[in-house]
Design goal:
The structure holds two protein chains of two kinds. Chain A folds into two domains: about 70 residues, Arc Repressor Mutant, subunit A (Orthogonal Bundle); about 80 residues, 3-Layer(aba) Sandwich (Glutaredoxin). Chain A has eight helices and five strands. In chain A, helix 2 runs antiparallel to helix 3, helix 3 runs antiparallel to helix 4 and helix 7 runs parallel beside helix 8. Chain A starts with a helix and ends in a 7-residue tail after the last helix. The relative contact order of chain A is 0.12. By secondary structure, chain B is α/β, with parallel strands linked by helices. Chain B contains 26 helices and 33 strands. In chain B, the strands form eight sheets. A seven-stranded mixed sheet of chain B has the order 14-13-24-23-22-15-16, with helices on both faces. A six-stranded mixed β-barrel of chain B has the order 28-32-29-31-30-33. In chain B, strand 25 and strand 26 form a beta hairpin. In chain B, helix 8 packs across helix 23, helix 15 packs across helix 16 and helix 19 crosses helix 21. Chain B is globular, with a radius of gyration of 28 Å. Classes of the chains: A alpha+beta, B alpha/beta. At the A-B interface, helix 1 and helix 5 of A face strand 7 of B.
């Protein structure tokens, strides 16, 4: 690992283990056009792209840090802040809106104490309003990671939160 | 060449040209916002839309479309005009109309095009941006509200400067230009981004509210800092230089400048400039008239055998030529420049190895080469615009880059670049090892093998086999062999190395070793081949060409100080030099200056050396005089005065000319006559006149006569474990001590520091900016620590530019000075 990154590692307040990021970089280091797969791989490991990981990638791939930031902000798929273990998406598209999505959203806000595109301090939940999830027949619709919850009600919001509150915070990895 | 039709005209253009370039070559103007002739086509602004008949009348961007045979292009139709108007309307939707207070007014491409296309109203309405303006650095203001996203700043910082400070952040309407994680700009501050910005989004802060663009005269000149010889266009109003103006067609560097060239001009109009001669009376310097001053100087220097002169390599060729005449006239052989050793690579090394004291390569060979061998990564700091040439060569032309250096640096980050970090002071040894390896690997060129001295040399160089040299220079035999093979087997290869007062190790021996390497590999001459010495100052090469250094029994600069101490020299004439700060061993220099009977100094500023002078003569800067400078690679360029002389100052030419007359000699009274004399006496300058130098200048003719000579090589003294090796060098922001009087460089690099490795810092418990004490045999000093990644363990680097706390308090002037370091 390069000294520049070592130095930033010393300065950072929270501990981030760079071993997983190094592993991803090792895998793609000799591949032309490796920036995207590296960034995606690193995000898979951490759930977001930590600043120090971006510096490490810049250093090891010999890409300007600014260029990495350009790519990270261009694509909606990359996140620069830690994301929750469970990503809750509530559809506010036309069909869901008509079926009362606004109340569902507000109930989530209320119960989780966070707003749109925000993450709870314990990193359990990230909440997002989305335009359409493509299942209007199930309106109003919510998703938690890959699981779908149709015909949402205020009661169901509480059930979902209770359910996910029980689940372990660390993923299987 | 390709034949095509543009606007009903039959024209021809190079095969790889774009429609935009083809039109430009043929004098047809196509409006554009995102194009610069140094940058790759980008196609961002859509102003250059044209119609091509073969493409069914579709509108296509001229700047990204290559020409084809028989293409029929129309650059202006009612439809195209409509489309361009739409582009401008959309840009003006978000661009603030604050032109009355924008410094770009009058020089703004968007403003000019809006005027050309009569955009007096806008069919659309939207809010203006509310981005925060970046005022976090003193040189470059970034107002992203004015940005039109042409991407020129992003591209120039990547393609040419290779720093990559800027990027496009976000996408769609929210896109803006910024740095990583949207932080404040923190870069080299070369201002390249400012120079190409078509609007007022990036501005030079020192020029803010100084003058409207159209109120300034734009005058051509040559940069007065380093030996690159960059051309400048200076913005002048009421006899003052207010800014540098970008001209993409100027010079080999196409208008590209570094931080000191672009922002360092303020020394010219600095308030501290001396305006009247000063004479020492009763211990104090008081103003006096020129007649009195010159009479006194003439009477003191008349006794030539006890008089010596040392000049700064910033004088013009004409001044050096005249100065030499003056010294010869009074019967003195004791004249020199640049501390007497900084020119030895040329005057002694190249002179004996190559037959003339000049480089065999030119700056424009860099991009034509296959491989560059750069001695010291500092080449980027000493000659930044040559650094840009290297960047372009490596990134755009695929030229290989190998660096041997005592520290890491920015050049080493270029794609594919290899840096061989050797122990400080072992340069010559390492180059000898490369030579030995070339012979061992049987890669010697036939011309070298047939040289009469080859056998003897080959025998002598065996002592420097890679195996023997490895431990002394810290580079493995395998690496030495691979680098030697790489250099010798490249079809075209070039060697670049800086010289200067701060680089005592870059001496005649290193120059000879490098010449040997080039000779052995058959790379002495030809396109993309040769040796390019990068001399420190704007006219270092000229000082050498005009012979302003001692030959025979004349004393060199440092010997002059010895001679002063033992009473042989009683009068010293310093032209522009500031040895108290820039020469090794401050205490010794001061001791000698105190002992002098008479010290006369021509200078722009009341320097530290002026405190020892009996007579101080105010000199004129390059912007106030006429003459020629010869830069790296023998490029002779003419420049004319752009402003009147400051106060009662006189040019060194006038001063020396008067002194010649007062000491009974005869001399031409204007520079052009002296240049004619130079052209008729110096072979390299034969046929040159001010008229035929024109705007592009000319290159000196160099005759080479290669000889293989074994350099005297000393193994670097082994460092005691508790000691550090002090190496001095240049910073990107400064050149000599002159740049201290330019506001721009001082804004970003105001004071000296001692740079040490991270490992040493943590071992000694030193943190960034801690005050550390450095002690050598000659003295002791305290400096702020800079903890860095590029310095190897056991090495401390201190820049040599600063008058406050100068490094020569502890610096011996040897390639490496052992120092003790403590908190």
């Amino acid at each position: 690992m390069s000294e520049a990154v070592e130095q930033r590692e010393e300065e950072q307040t929270e501990e981030i283990d760079l071993e997983p990021a190094n592993r991803v970089i090792d895998k793609f280091i000799d591949m032309p056009g490796n920036l995207m797969p590296v960034l995606q791989g690193v995000q898979d490991e951490y759930g977001y792209i930590p600043r120090i990981a971006a510096d490490l990638i810049a250093e090891r791939l010999n890409v300007y840090p600014s260029q990495i930031y350009g790519v990270l902000t261009f694509y909606a798929q990359f996140h620069l802040k830690p994301r929750g273990r469970f990503i809750i998406r509530v559809c506010v598209g036309t069909a869901c809106h008509v079926q009362g999505a606004t109340r569902i959203v507000e109930t989530f806000y209320d119960k989780l104490g966070i707003g749109h595109a925000e993450t709870t301090p314990d990193l359990r939940y990230t909440f997002e309003k989305v335009a359409c999830l493509g299942a209007c027949g199930m309106a109003p619709l919510a998703m938690v990671n890959d699981a779908t919850y149709g015909s949402m009600t205020v009661q169901k919001v509480e059930e979902i939160i209770n359910d996910y509150n029980q689940r372990p915070l660390k993923s299987g990895k | 060449m390709v034949n095509l039709t543009i606007d009903n005209r039959q024209v021809t253009a190079p095969r790889n040209a774009t429609i935009y370039e083809a039109a430009k070559i043929n004098g047809i103007h196509i409006p554009i916002l995102c194009h610069d002739n140094k940058l790759k086509p980008f196609g961002a602004c859509r102003m250059c839309l044209v119609e091509v008949e073969q493409m069914k009348g579709r509108q296509i961007p001229a700047c990204t479309t290559p020409v084809t045979e028989g293409m029929i292009v129309t650059t202006s139709t009612p439809d195209i005009i409509k489309a361009r108007k739409l582009v401008l309307e959309l840009l003006l939707l978000n661009h603030p109309l604050d032109c009355p207070v924008c410094d770009k007014g009058g020089d703004c491409d968007l403003q000019n095009l809006s005027y050309d296309y009569k955009i007096s109203s806008n069919r659309f309405h939207d809010q203006k941006f509310q981005h925060k303006i970046d005022y976090n650095n003193p040189l470059i203001e970034r107002d992203m509200n004015r940005c039109i996203l042409c991407g020129k700043c992003v591209r120039i910082c990547d393609e040419i400067v290779s720093f990559g400070a800027l990027t496009f952040i976000g996408r769609g309407i929210e896109t803006k230009i910024g740095c990583e994680f949207d932080e404040a700009l923190n870069c080299e501050f070369c201002g390249s981004c400012v120079s190409v910005c078509p609007v007022g989004a990036l501005l030079a802060r020192p020029f803010k509210f100084k003058a409207r663009f159209w109120a300034m005269e734009k005058k051509r000149s040559i940069c007065g800092y380093c030996g690159t010889g960059c051309n400048l266009t200076l913005g002048v109003k009421e006899g003052k230089v207010l800014t540098t103006v970008y001209d993409e067609n100027q010079g080999f560097h196409r208008g590209q400048l570094c931080v000191r060239g672009r922002f360092g001009y303020q020394f010219i109009n600095n308030e501290k400039r001396l305006k009247k001669p000063l004479i020492r009376k009763n211990g104090a310097l008081v103003e006096c008239g020129w007649d009195e001053a010159l009479q006194l100087a003439a009477s003191k220097i008349r006794n030539g055998s006890e008089t010596a002169a040392i000049a700064t390599p910033r004088l013009t060729n004409e001044e050096f030529f005249l100065f030499r005449k003056l010294m010869k006239g009074i019967g003195s052989e004791n004249f020199d420049h640049a501390a007497g050793y900084a020119h030895k690579a040329l005057t002694s090394g190249f002179a004996r190895s190559l037959g003339s004291a000049a480089s065999t390569a030119m700056v424009n060979d860099i991009q034509k080469s296959d491989m560059l061998l750069v001695i010291k990564t500092d080449s980027y700091e000493t000659h930044p615009v040559i650094g840009f040439e290297i960047n372009i060569a490596v990134k755009d032309k695929g030229v290989k880059l190998n660096i041997v250096s005592d520290k890491n640096g920015k050049l080493g980050k270029l794609p594919g670049a290899r840096t061989f970090v050797h122990l400080p002071g072992s340069e010559t040894l390492l180059i000898n090892a490369l030579c030995s390896s070339v012979i061992k690997q049987k890669l010697v060129s036939s011309t070298a093998a047939s040289l009469p001295d080859f056998k003897e040399y080959a025998k002598g160089i065996e002592a420097f086999s890679p195996e023997k040299a490895a431990s002394l220079c810290g580079i493995s035999p395998e690496e030495i062999n691979s680098l030697a093979a790489d250099f010798a087997s490249s079809k075209k290869a070039m060697i670049l190395f800086p010289t200067g007062v701060a680089y005592p190790g870059h001496d005649s021996e290193l120059a000879t070793a490098l010449a040997n390497l080039a000779i052995l590999a058959g790379k002495v001459e030809g396109e993309g081949c040769g040796l390019l010495c990068l001399p420190e100052k704007n006219n270092s090469q000229g000082a050498v060409d005009t012979g302003f250094y001692p030959t025979g029994k004349g004393l060199d600069a440092l010997s002059v100080f010895d001679a002063i101490e033992d009473g042989r020299i009683k009068t010293l004439f310093l032209a522009g030099e500031n040895p108290v700060v820039s020469y090794p061993d401050e205490a010794r220099i001061k001791r000698a200056l105190e002992k002098l009977d008479f010290l006369v100094l021509t200078t722009l500023f009341p320097t530290e050396t002026a405190e020892y002078a009996d007579l101080v003569l105010p000199a004129s800067s390059y912007a106030e005089k006429e003459g020629t400078f010869t830069s790296a690679g023998g490029h002779v360029q003419y420049f004319a005065p752009v402003i009147p002389k400051a106060g009662d100052s006189r040019t060194d030419f006038e001063i020396i000319s008067s002194l010649i007359k007062l000491t009974g000699g005869e001399a031409a009274s204007n520079p052009s006559e002296i240049f004619a004399e130079i052209a008729s006496t110096l072979d390299g300058y034969a046929g040159m006149t001010y008229e035929n130098l024109g705007e592009n200048g000319a290159f000196t003719a160099v005759k080479t006569r290669p000889a293989l000579i074994l350099p005297q090589t000393q193994a670097p003294a082994l460092r005691k474990p508790e000691e550090f090796s002090l190496v001095t060098g240049a910073l990107l922001y400064h050149n000599g001590t002159l740049s201290q009087f330019g506001e721009g460089p001082m804004h970003v690099s105001p004071e000296s520091y001692a740079e040490i490795s991270r490992k040493d810092a943590s071992r000694l418990g030193i943190k960034e900016n801690d005050t550390i004490t450095l002690t050598s045999d000659s003295g002791s000093m305290q400096l702020a620590a800079r903890v860095s990644l590029r310095i190897p363990e056991g090495v401390v680097f201190i820049p040599n530019h600063f008058s406050a706390n100068p490094v020569n308090a502890i610096w011996s002037g040897k390639p490496v000075t052992p120092v003790a370091l403590s908190r």
